[in-house]
Design brief:
612 residues, five-stranded antiparallel beta sheet, alpha+beta
């Protein structure tokens, strides 16, 4: 008898989810299957990086955990969508969280790590991102950094104006694809840039919210079936707020088929917004017409973040129109509509290709830019520079003009980057020390990248076990010695000098990215951080203190040579003055300042996401 051959491990696990939320039913292919990266799962489900813990704090109980390894569940591609089954809720938060994580790891070219938990007591699955699908009875969902957990609430819909929901119907935030993706993005950004959770200027809390919305909304446009149906119903104009009626009718519709419908692709958390009596999605990809003055008077994090979201979606829709201009012209001139006013299927498929491809490009561009952002105190203008530099590194020629459209959209929204003379692509690129008129530091000897050693470390799982080494043999000590020897060139202030502080090193695994021309781009990134205590009022010895931080993101090539230095110098008085002013404003409006006069505010996602 021949020996049985081992079975091939699958690459993906198919799992059913709601493409949007339960309120759409089966419309626009709302029941969809996503391919989650395959991994062995225990009940929960609990995987390598994500753990679903279904504990209800309000009712002090656990719900029965789903077993996605059960043969009956496996053969069906997971459980079917069901609002009334907590096990499907667990499946959905796991699937969407895993898919969102996969998108980040693909775009960044490396494995993601969560923030180190600062909880005092060790809890189960503390090394993973924990998801609580039914955490409490409240119209809220939020990421909590201390416990590295996401809590999803559930609540009763409005009795007087519930939208498409039943009056008083239980709404589960864990069944909203948008809300899950939004909260998981908060956790991922917190792992990549942990200090962005500190409110150092008006842009930092707004950036966290905007980036989470950007990821959730762009994922809509990668759902091919939903995009295809929307294209047919909008005549290819994806940015319309409403879908055309299924049949042409009079001004006063006689049947529902003659009524227009809200376009779900451009709205975020439709069911949640309607259930709260808002009669609309919670937020939208469509902003107000460009206004370069609005950002100067808009400071609430969601509203300010909406300016950044609107700029990126203005650019996305403009690029989509540019890429599909010939197809849209054919739709208008050749009479390709069906009897019901919808586009011909073949033409809609071609437009769908352009829409989904462009959305994936834009999402990858935004995610890759995270690595090119400063380590602290981020501003919208710096994010623009990060986008332009990161994309220019990978796609030097930019044949469709993505970068030009992004720059134009940011300019029209009044987002002004510091340290540049104009909005040209060349001016916005981050620069190397030599470009800034400084001496070029020698290569960092601890950063010579060895792809064979990298591969060997991966196969033996030594990466996570060895705290003194990360991928490719990068050594913390080598980076620290390099920073001490080249502090000024790297935008740092030596510790022994006035205004200086101890230098902390935060390296990342090597980044592997393949450009559209087939080039393999390998970069090595390190963050160098400094901090010191400063008084809110420098003339008052009893004034509360806060941590004033500085540092640099330094991008090396595979030979250890410095390519870019993205700095926030700790010795820049202008930064300190601006942060004092902003922290004073936060302290003045914080209710907690009465009880904790010596503690200053940080970003609270629970407070920002509270709906009532």
């Amino acid at each position: 008898m021949t020996k049985d051959r081992p079975y091939t491990r699958p690459s993906f696990r198919p799992l059913a989810v709601f493409a949007f939320d339960p309120s759409l039913g089966r419309q626009l292919n709302n029941y969809m299957t996503i391919k989650v990266p395959f991994e062995a799962l225990s009940r929960g489900p609990v995987g390598r990086k994500v753990a679903v813990v279904d504990y209800d704090i309000s009712n002090n109980c656990f719900y029965h955990s789903v077993d996605l390894e059960n043969p009956l569940v496996l053969t069906g591609g997971g459980l079917s969508p069901a609002e009334s089954d907590p096990r499907f809720h667990q499946q959905m938060v796991y699937a969407v969280a895993s898919e969102t994580l996969r998108r980040f790891e693909f775009a960044l070219g490396r494995q993601m790590k969560w923030r180190t938990s600062s909880a005092r007591h060790k809890a189960r699955h503390q090394d993973k991102l924990r998801l609580f699908p039914h955490a409490f009875q409240q119209a809220n969902a939020f990421y909590e950094p201390t416990h590295r957990a996401i809590f999803f609430g559930y609540f009763a819909a409005s009795e007087s104006d519930p939208g498409s929901n039943l009056p008083g119907q239980t709404i589960f935030t864990c069944l909203s694809h948008d809300i899950i993706a939004h909260e998981v993005t908060h956790a991922i950004v917190d792992g990549v840039r942990p200090l962005y959770i500190e409110a150092t200027n008006a842009d930092t809390p707004a950036f966290h919210e905007a980036f989470a919305d950007i990821v959730a909304l762009f994922q809509h446009f990668s759902m091919r079936d939903a995009v295809f149906q929307t294209i047919r119903r909008t005549g290819g104009l994806l940015y319309r707020e409403t879908l055309d009626a299924q049949v042409a009718g009079a001004d006063s519709p006689a049947i529902t088929a003659e009524m227009s419908q809200t376009n779900p692709l451009v709205g975020l958390a439709q069911q949640f917004g309607e259930a709260m009596g808002m009669r609309a999605a919670l937020r939208s990809a469509l902003g107000t017409p460009p206004n370069s003055q609005a950002i100067q008077s808009t400071f609430e994090p969601h509203l300010r973040g909406a300016i950044l979201v609107a700029a990126l979606f203005d650019a996305y829709f403009s690029i989509y129109v540019k890429r599909s201009k010939d197809l849209l012209r054919m739709a208008r001139t050749n009479g390709t509509s069906t009897a019901f006013g919808e586009l011909d299927s073949d033409l809609a498929q071609r437009l769908c290709n352009e829409a989904t491809k462009t959305a994936n490009h834009m999402l990858n561009i935004c995610i890759r830019a995270l690595d090119y952002c400063p380590p602290v105190d981020v501003r919208f203008g710096e994010f623009l520079r990060a986008i332009i530099t990161a994309d220019s590194d990978l796609v030097p020629d930019d044949p469709w003009g993505y970068r030009a459209e992004i720059i134009k959209a940011f300019r029209l929204r009044g987002i002004v980057p510091d340290g540049v003379d104009n909005y040209s692509e060349e001016a916005l690129l981050w620069r190397s020390p030599s470009d800034m008129g400084m001496r070029s530091p020698p290569p960092c000897q601890g950063l010579q990248y060895d792809i064979l050693r990298d591969d060997a470390l991966r196969k033996t799982d030594k990466i996570a076990a060895d705290d003194d080494r990360i991928l490719g043999g990068i050594n913390f000590r080598s980076l620290w010695d390099y920073a001490m020897a080249n502090a000024r060139v790297l935008g740092l202030t030596p510790p022994k000098e006035e205004g200086g502080a101890r230098i902390q090193v935060v390296p990342h695994p090597p980044i592997h990215r393949i450009g559209p021309d087939g080039r393999l781009v390998i970069n090595l990134i390190a963050q160098f951080l400094q901090q010191r205590k400063e008084r809110l009022d420098p003339d008052d010895k009893k004034s509360p203190t806060f941590k004033f931080r500085g540092g640099s993101t330094v991008i090396f090539n595979h030979r250890g040579e410095v390519r870019y230095v993205i700095q926030k110098n700790i010795n820049r008085q202008e930064r300190l003055d601006e942060q004092r002013d902003y922290q004073s404003q936060l302290s003045a409006v914080s209710a907690a300042s009465i009880f904790k006069p010596n503690e200053l505010c940080t970003i609270s996602f629970a407070a920002m996401h509270r709906a009532g």
